[in-house]
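Exercise 4. Each item below gives a protein and its sequence. For each, produce the structure-token representation.

Item: Adenosine 5'-phosphosulfate reductase (Rhizobium mongolense).
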Amino acid sequence: MTVVNIIEEAETLNAKLAPLSLAERLSFVAGLDVRVVFTTSLGIEDQVITAEIGNHRLPIDVVTLQTGRLFPETLALLDETESQYDIHITRYEPEQADIDAYAAKYGMNGFYESVEARHACCGVRKLKPLARALAGATIWITGLRRGQSANRAETPFAEYDAERHLLKINPLADWDIETIKSYVADNSVPVNPLHARGYPSIGCEPCTRAIKPGEPERAGRWWWEQDEKRECGLHVGEEATAVAAR
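Answer:
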């Protein structure tokens, strides 16, 4: 299939998913007879998607990037989530050789010293494991929402990820944080206790802080950097091609 064909398919999917409920969006994608992978960071959005996948027993592979620097609370939630929904969440970890090479060049916590070093750390601990997690997949499901940051304000329901040559589905694109919280409360979804301590977006422990009143949801990620569009590279890259939501 050519790039043009995939982009056209993304446009078609985007239109089809827009009027559906979350359960309907996930069920539709799960029924496309291709390998579908959902990557969860165990954040509140991702927990909502996991709950739908588990409750409806959808044939979607649920995976997570076990970076080696996650909060203890996140690791505990991982086990709790598997138990509550009777699912297996596959862990993808960085290669020790890559970690050693990074530490030799930048120092174990060298990501504080430069954007280059921080991107290199994300590459080792997130991007390379993600590539393994998505190997053989046609569709990648994420918990991206338009309200998470200005950088994500135009998030569509379906888009072509040119870097990974697959379709990316964002079934919560139009959900706001209050809708997310209501779903969690109404359905007894387990969430990271750090959310209640001022961490709306949770990544690796050394790179995440609580946000201050009035700050955007992702202000606590890589807070020492000045670029307001800071990302790790999982969802924003130079070659990403998005289909505008309709």
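Check: Strands lie at 36-39, 61-65, 90-92, 139-141, 158-161, 166-169.
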